[in-house]
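Please check this protein record:
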Amino acid sequence: MNKCSSTLCPRFEKGMQILSKRWAGLIIHQLLNGPQRFCHIEAAFPISGRILSERLKDLERENIVKRDVYPETPVRIEYTLTEKGMALGPVIEEIQRWSEEWVTPESMTEEVKQEENETAKKGL
């Protein structure tokens, strides 16, 4: 029997809070492809650098993302998923499958529709 059946499980609630922060799921999805630099992640989404930086720091604090600094000239910084972050892979992929089947264009907000159109124009 599920340990969280009688009340909302605090762990489940915390997990949902982490994943429901704007852009967090998409950043994790992007990093499932392997280590990436900040500019590559930023180019993948219509997101400001400030927001991306905040979200990456949030995911680092949760030990989902690891920031690697390479002492080169210029300094190279890459972001990768930790073991904890990689464990989200099946969850993120299942959400993607679910949304492809069940989320219709009519149910999307105007902002999401606009972002999707811009992405299609870029050929991403």
In short: The chain has seven helices and three strands. The mean pLDDT is 87. The helical segments are 10-20, 24-31, 38-44, 49-61, 83-86, 89-102, 110-122.
